[in-house]
Amino acid sequence: MPKARVYELAKRLNISARELLDELEELGVTVKNHMSVLDDETVNIIVGLYEEEKKETVRKNEKAKSKVQEKEVKKLEKKLVSKEETPQEKKAPIQQEARTIKLKSNEFKLDILAKKMNIPISKIIKDQFMKGIILRPGQILSMEDTRNIASQYGWEIELIQEDEINPFERLVESYQNAYREGTRLVQRPPVVTVMGHVDHGKTTLLDRIRKAKVAEGEIGGITQSIGAYQVEIRGKKITFIDTPGHEAFTEMRARGAQATDIVVLVVAADDGVMPQTIEAYNHAKTANVPIIVAINKIDKPNANIDLTKQQLASKLGLVPEDWGGDTVTVPVSAKTGKGVEDVLEMILLVSEVADIKCIPQGHARGIIIDSKLDKAMGPLATLVVKDGVLKVGDYVVAGSSAGRVKALINENGKRIKEAHPSDPVQIIGFDEVPDVHSIVYVVDDLDTSRALSQYSKGQLQKEKSVTNRRHVRLEEFLSMTGESNEKKDLKLILKADSFGAVEALKQAMSKLENTDVRIEVVHSGIGSINSSDVMLASASDAVIMGFKVKPDAQARHQADVEGVQIKVYDIIFNLIDDLKKALEGLLEPEEVEEVTGRGHVKKIFKISKVGTIAGVQLIEGHVLKKGKMRVYRNNEEIADVDIEFLKHYKDDASRVDAPKECGIKAVGFDEFEEGDQLEFHTKKSVRRTIDFNE
Predict the structure, then answer these.
(1) Does 458 show up as a binding residue in the annotation?
(2) For residue 546, is it within any domain?
(3) According to the annotation, is 201 in a ligand binding site?
(4) Is the pLDDT of residue 353 over 60?
(5) pTM confidence score
(6) Rounded to an integer, what distance in angstroms lies between the CA atom of residue 126 and that of residue 245?
(7) Is position 299 annotated in a ligand binding site?
């Protein structure tokens, strides 16, 4: 039998590539991934042993069952023994209790957790940030997040039972139990996120796949909202999430990575790996999802596929398969369509190996990837269904938002009756705009939906009360991290057309902060700029910035009366650039040293009642009377002194330029020797700038 790749042999044996990889591992055959090539001998051996191996697997399963039964018997025996233990015997585990934190249901807050563990909150925030998790002082945590954070520092969480129990925990637990049992699980279509640097062809690639033009209407040619689309190839579906290309939409991209199963990283063959390519890769890596690299624009005359692969390997550690690595790379031209089918084929193959599962029936749940307030339809949320079947008429809840599904709209703008796992769909029917990245749950009735939303609102109110007191604690946190209390604030009121845009802008602003200046978002929201925003800006001395929204007539008039500045933008680049300039304008000028020239001592003159005068030969630059000089002898600095007076021959001089000679008297230094090397320097005031790439 001829040699074949793993996935090809899997097809011959009528099994999945994942199953074959497992079989190969048990047989001791080392392969990197599903794309690895098996030689003739190995293929023949595997085919010959497959049936026997299947029988052996059955026998192993039977043995495993018997072992499980034995373990259960031992557990029962231990329980019976524990009941007969004396009080003295029960004292053994008391020491472990010292590493257990007991929390009430309303105490799942970062501040409380940090205090109970006796760990600085700044350390926890920094540690979690390195893992890609953004926290803030006073943040309310889920039970799962609390336990995960605590376990990282050697603590366990014990919930103190109260009358008030988080009802969402019961919903989450029901899905977790279903996944643990595994009996109801089936394969679902993969959800794919397309990432990459701006203008590398992400949206063009999707346009080619789904045969729909969306990029042409975008201002500046940049996709500035998340869209989800589904395609079908050979009877199998693939869902795509299109994330924005600009770095300011980092948070959107992060949400896409968390909601996805596979990432397609688009890299232009004529441009190579760029900063946003690295950023996108880091998000995919943090999400721990498979990465397929689409090397785009191979139709360009200056395209260099090999150089692009070299950069992928050196800058990202993504070694292509044909170079001996395990990264799937596909040369493609989104413009001509060349290689697009290969990308889809690889997505299906990687999906098969990843073994993506879901609960096919029952109450649905999904992840909101964008939300906004539509003038015609009201609150509108875009989500990807993860489990179950979402139907028109279902009662839903997403955080503090509740309602009944009035309509479901697919990516083509058509109304549908139901949506299945991995289907992208828009929901009409929420009573308010749900938060982006919140989980949508289907519940039994409207009362349950409203009760859950009211619970969330109560929790948000508690968090808000914490937020109102956060200013003092934030200053304490900043002092703990060594930042100056003299940090200057740029206060902003931020309005945008969607929650996704607001989150993305906040994420971008957090990257612009410096040890001396900081952006403080006094208020943020969605919708047009109104009079309430203006009055708040007036009271807090803030600037109003709007992204893709305008102030209404009353707000404009109020702004003129109050003297409040309103700035609106349609392109994210302009907004970020203005913020950078504003932050740099808050910085105090910086005194910096400037080396003006060099020379050496040619001769020494000792004058009574004056002191020692150094006769200096200037080699380069110039020397200033109001400057300073460093004296070097045998390549070692022996003095750094002010210049008392400067003469050119017998005349006083304010400046002498090379290659002239001059006489110099230093303040408090007379130990010149012939041959001493001199370096002249001065201080000047310069406008400070911020390196926003740090």
Answers:
(1) no
(2) yes
(3) yes
(4) yes
(5) 0.53
(6) 27
(7) yes
